[in-house]
Amino acid sequence: MAYSITLLPGDGIGPEVTEATLRIIDAAGVDVEWDRHRVIGQTAVERGRPALPPDVIDSIQSTGVALKGPITTPVGQGFTSVNVQLRQRLDLYANVRPCATLPGLDTPFEGTDLIIFRENTEGLYSGIENFDERLQIADSIARVTKKGSERIIRFCFEYAKKNGRDHVTLAHKANILKKTSGLFLDIGREVAAEYPSITFDDEIIDALCMKLVMKPEEYDCIVSTNLFGDILSDLTAGLVGGLGVTAGSNIGDDYAVFEAVHGSAPDIAGQNVANPTALIRSAILMLQHIGEPAAADAIYEALVDLYQSGDTLTADVGGEASTSEFAEALSDRVSRLVEA
Ligand code: NAD
Fold first, then answer.
1. Residue 200 Cα, ligand 1 centroid: separation in angstroms?
2. How far is residue 260's CA from residue 121's CA, in Å, rounded to a whole number?
């Protein structure tokens, strides 16, 4: 029976990398009935609809799973980020972003294999902002709750336990943000006490950034609040080859949305040059989530084979191939593996 999955191609490079990813899932032989929603974000607003149309939420609530391309957010004005709205409306509280060296891809560090667990619904993304016109003062409130902190930290420890990982680092700024980061750290220490077999430590965010770009191999699972987690995941994406290759998932108790770490990349949109690897790796996470580990493994194996061959790679990783040439070379490899 076909899986029913919501598809949000997004905008910018979204439709290009999404088409490439669908081709790979198809080559892996997974039968999916996609519920495709193209009208979202700016496209929806231009048609007089909300940036996040209700039918998108209805679809994910019905299928339980979505594959999503990036969606542009206007800077400093305009509608609230659709990405943030989706995470909050569906309570997708765990943003899981694995950063592991892809064999065959040349990076300054060998053997990096860490995962960022970012709290995805509160902190500085709570949307509590104010600008006092008269005083010319702007405020953004970072709301950190006991419930929100506990569930992401516990999610991180549970993930570590289930996946044979043995080290959790909590990133914070509790020396300055004594209430918000302080609460997150206190709860981290409480939850850590329930997992004695997992080494737990904490790092001040700025020092952690320095250590990550010097010795990334010393880290395993890193859990943090919303904004720190977002910045850390772009930093760690850079350690393993860049935004073109880094996957992510947004997980809640009821729904899951799989998307790359990167944004809509307006500088290269529409040129057929974007690297679809990040969304393809997000699709691998999705296939594992829905219970198709063999297809996920075949796609990963084919990706490694393609990168090791050094042929048909996109410009961001040193090649000259277009998005569609990359997709064709990869889908050939996936089909061969699946048929073997
Ligand atoms: P970006 O990730 O879109 O781009 C940063 C740089 O990385 C650019 O030079 C871009 O060309 C490059 N890049 C990104 N993805 C690539 C790929 N697959 N292949 C090759 N190169 C790639 O970040 P930005 O420019 O800060 O953001 C652009 C827009 O995307 C903004 O509106 C932002 O709000 C939005 N955004 C959306 C999401 C999301 O939908 N989840 C995430 C981040 C940013």
1. 32
2. 18
Is-above-0.90 flag for pTM?
yes
CA distance 29 to 340: 13
Six-digit token pair at 323? Answer: 């998005």
State in Å: Cα 264 to ligand 1 middle: 5
Residue of 92, 95, 262 to test ligand 1 pocket, by largest number of atoms within 8 Å of CB:
262
Closest residue CA from atom 36 of ligand 1: 263
* pLDDT by 10s per residue, the chain, length 340: 899 999 999 999 999 999 999 999 999 999 999 999 999 999 999 999 999 999 999 999 999 999 999 999 989 888 889 999 999 999 999 999 999 999 999 898 888 999 999 999 999 999 899 999 999 999 999 999 999 999 999 999 999 999 999 999 999 999 999 999 999 999 999 999 999 999 999 999 999 999 999 999 999 999 999 999 999 999 999 999 999 999 999 999 999 999 999 999 999 999 999 999 999 999 999 999 999 999 999 999 999 999 999 989 999 999 999 999 999 999 999 999 998 8
d(CA 217, CA 213): 10
Instruction: Report yes or no: 7 and 66 within 8 Å, Cβ to Cβ.
Output: yes
